[in-house]
Amino acid sequence: MSQRYESGMDVRRSVLGDDHVARAEAAKTAFDEPFQTLITEGAWGTVWASDGIGNRERSMLTLALLAALGNFEEIPMHIRATARTGASKQDVLEAFQHVAIYAGVPRANQALKLAKETYAEMERERPSGGDAKREDVT
């Protein structure tokens, strides 16, 4: 594999987590392997690997773009990634408020619904007694 692919896999793992990447890799077939390589090299090995902005900002941009374009199926995955990128619940709320103004309230509303559901799942999955900080979005 190329250096860009290897770098992309490293970034992908750091943002999405080893478990997610392992599941995605296990589901990869000969049919979609070229597409998965394209995503790994392009999205993760080029865009996410750039040091032009930080991962917190990339998370916010990604979530806003997914919501604005109505690509809701990937929002939960990227909400989960915020635990690794440093984007807070408040950051996500701010991003979706921009979506409401610039792309439409229904899209922002759906994105917020998915975010709330995903944050609730993450809270239930968190080991009890953990020292992780809890943030509420009202």
Shape estimate: globular
At the first level of CATH, the class of the largest domain is: Mainly Alpha
Order of H and E elements = HHHHHHH
Radius of gyration: 16 Å
Number of helical regions: 7
Q: What percent strand?
A: under 5%
CATH homologous superfamily caption of the largest domain: AhpD-like
Distance between the termini: 46 Å
The third-level CATH topology of the largest domain is: AhpD-like
Assign a percent range to the helix content.
Answer: over 70%
CATH second-level architecture of the largest domain: Up-down Bundle
The overall strand count is 0
| Total separate domains | 2
Uncertain segments of ≥5 residues (pLDDT<50)? 131-138
The overall average pLDDT, rounded, is: 93
Largest sheet: none
State the secondary-structure class. mainly alpha
Topology:
Elements: H1 3-16, H2 18-27, H3 33-47, H4 55-68, H5 75-85, H6 89-102, H7 105-125
Describe the protein in words:
- The protein is an all-alpha fold and 138 residues long.
- The chain has 2 domains: 1-50, no CATH class; 54-138, Up-down Bundle (AhpD-like), CATH 1.20.1290.
- The protein is built from 7 helices and no strands.
- It has helices at residues 3-16, 18-27, 33-47, 55-68, 75-85, 89-102, 105-125.
- Helix 4 runs parallel beside helix 6 (89-102) and helix 5 (75-85) crosses helix 7.
- It starts with a helix and ends in a 13-residue tail after the last helix.
